[in-house]
Amino acid sequence: MRILGVILVIAGVLMLFSNSISFTTKEKVIDAGPIQVSADKERTLDWPQYAGGIVAAAGIALMIFAKKK
Question: What's the pLDDT score for residue 69?
Fold first, then answer.
């Protein structure tokens, strides 16, 4: 559980400094037998800035309350 906590803290800090992620997907526009046309479409995933704080706090809580072996 500590590893998951560390991952959540890192992801939360990155989310605090960046408000979105952009990525590109390929989509088929035309699929008519042997003719196929595809296009690149840029997509953006946005989140509120406080979400990064919540994720980081959850990671810290996991690290604190994880059972020690």
Answer: 57
